[in-house]
């Protein structure tokens, strides 16, 4: 293929992605690095990543990640939500320790919809939708991620990236700056093997990582598994749900995500009904 036609395809991909108006960062992520336990992301290269924060002793504290999927809706994990807490959503953030970061925004929460079949014992249907108190204005630092096609699956070893402000290593410190880590998809047939996650992982979940080398130690509950679609835009394919109690980098124990493509109907119903 000549460079001329290659360039044409790249431009077309960019145009298609813009037409879809989701999943297109202004600041491109660094996808060349392969670092254990993640690395600092290019600031604002995952502009749909949010920090879910709760109020304690007059201080807002980061508790979970999440994904902006509409100008007033955030996708996160059910296990992140507690009825007794007051939440807010931080958008356009890179460093959580910098309170007035340029391009960032704190928004109050209107309502939180936890999936009616959320099972905290088996960690099933670990998904929640947060309606924001206002529509946020999209910008270079705040964008929405695309949703995958309903029912769609990714093949074994498809490269996806987990992002979050979670611990940098097992029992280690929380990250100040947003981290990213490459986590290839592990298909259900592999992930449900007896010495992997066995019956604990259902068809409504996605496994990624688990090679014992690159891990989601940096991955934060509720945050996205970011996978690039053919048109170049980024889709949120998973919501960080659970990992191994043995530690982040445990072989045959990949991070388990709620599979977003299973819940498209639910997301649309809650979104239109609230």
TrEMBL record:
One of its GO terms (cellular component) is extracellular space. The keyword Disulfide bond applies. This is Chymotrypsin C. Residues 35-272 form the Peptidase S1 domain. Keywords: Disulfide bond, Hydrolase, Protease, Serine protease, Signal. It comes from the Eukaryota. Transmembrane segments: none annotated. GO terms for molecular function: serine-type endopeptidase activity. GO terms for biological process: intracellular calcium ion homeostasis; proteolysis. The keyword Transmembrane does not apply. PANTHER family: CHYMOTRYPSIN-LIKE ELASTASE FAMILY MEMBER (PTHR24257), ELASTASE 3 LIKE ISOFORM X1 (PTHR24257:SF31). InterPro entries: Peptidase_S1_Elastase_sf (IPR050850), Peptidase_S1_PA (IPR009003), Peptidase_S1_PA_chymotrypsin (IPR043504), Peptidase_S1A (IPR001314), Trypsin_dom (IPR001254), TRYPSIN_HIS (IPR018114), TRYPSIN_SER (IPR033116). The gene is CTRC. Residues 1-21 form the signal peptide.
């Amino acid at each position: 293929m000549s460079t001329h036609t290659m360039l044409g395809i790249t431009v077309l991909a960019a145009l298609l992605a813009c037409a879809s108006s989701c999943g297109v960062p202004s600041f491109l992520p660094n996808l060349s690095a392969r670092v254990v336990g993640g690395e600092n992301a290019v600031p604002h290269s995952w502009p749909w990543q949010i920090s879910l924060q709760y109020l304690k002793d007059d201080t807002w504290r980061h508790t979970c990640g999440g994904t902006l999927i509409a100008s007033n809706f955030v996708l996160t994990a059910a296990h992140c939500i507690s009825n007794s807490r007051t939440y807010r959503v931080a958008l356009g953030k890179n460093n959580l320790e910098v309170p007035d970061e340029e391009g960032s925004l704190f928004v109050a929460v209107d309502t939180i919809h936890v999936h009616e079949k959320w099972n905290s014992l088996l960690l099933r249907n670990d998904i929640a939708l947060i309606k924001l108190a206002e529509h946020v204005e999209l910008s270079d630092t705040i964008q929405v991620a695309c949703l995958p096609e309903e029912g769609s699956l990714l093949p074994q070893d498809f490269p996806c990236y987990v992002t979050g402000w979670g611990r940098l290593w097992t029992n280690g410190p929380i990250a100040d700056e947003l981290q990213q880590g490459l986590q290839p998809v592990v298909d259900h047939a592999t992930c449900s093997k007896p010495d992997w996650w066995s019956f604990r992982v259902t068809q409504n979940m996605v496994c990624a990582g688990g090679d014992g080398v690159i891990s989601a130690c940096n991955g934060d509950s509720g945050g996205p598994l970011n996978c690039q679609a053919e048109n170049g835009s980024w889709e949120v394919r998973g919501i960080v749900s659970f990992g191994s109690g043995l530690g982040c980098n445990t072989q045959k124990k990949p991070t388990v995500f709620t599979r977003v493509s299973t819940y498209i109907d639910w997301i649309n119903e809650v979104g239109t009904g609230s």
